[in-house]
Amino acid sequence: MPDIIALGEPMVELNRHKGTEHYAVSCGGDVSNAMVAAARSGAAAGMATAVGDDEFGRMLLAMWAREGVDAASVKVDAAAPTGIYFVAHTEAGHEFSYRRAGSAASLFGPEDLPRDAIRSAKVLHVSGISQAISTRAADAVFAAMAEARAAGVLLSYDTNIRVKLWPVPRARAVIHEAMTNIDIALPGLDDARLLVGVEDPDAVADRYLSFGARIVALKLGSQGCLIATAEQRLRIPPHRVEAVDATGAGDTFDGAFLAEYLSTGDAFRAGLYANTAAALATRGYGAVDPMPRRADVLAALQASA
Q: Where do the Carbohydrate kinase PfkB domain residues begin and end (predicted)?
């Protein structure tokens, strides 16, 4: 059984390289990316979701097998497709387009949950996207969280709002209801502007701590991160790299943070580790391929010490 199990939608990514007509095909999906990052950082990670009985679904299953991500709780749905998305790079940043309506993962409901795997895990990780893809998916996340809470499993939540998936008022209501029951909040500053209407990182941390989170790991993009608890907080500056593509960097942060936190029990040490891992993940195209392994992160930390 995995120590960290994630519930959400895996997807196949078509990422257009800057200045070309070439699309690189790889695997993506926020919580799947996070589990790959966790596995590359040494954690026992797994997925609970569904994929289609199609080439893209088989591609995801093969990727998890290569990466050591447990897929025993992944359902193969013969009647629904695997979701895909496209990434384009513009002057304003990366732009996403989705083909996910009616996907296998969006049909994964409360009755499909691997309750034994959830109860035996140390962390359940979910996101705003996990709940945005359908009402059934949102209900499945709430049911999984209740199962985890009853078993004493830590709950981790990345706000990860996508306005193309649902309107902000509904996203705010659902996400903030979920976040009243979590232990580890993993928001991004851009999400916080939409969800809580504040810009100051400390004010964002205060808001999510007030919801009941024990730890807030606020991702600040190119400005690093802020780690906050009720007793202490630490602003961690960015780890400087030559960034090429930030797709999946926040997901890398999530998985690296959870892996290191389970290993050390120290949120601030986990924040430093995850901040570095996320930066290293921007040095190549795609969500999964550029993700660093533990040895890479430790070497970068030692070089910058």
A: 20-292
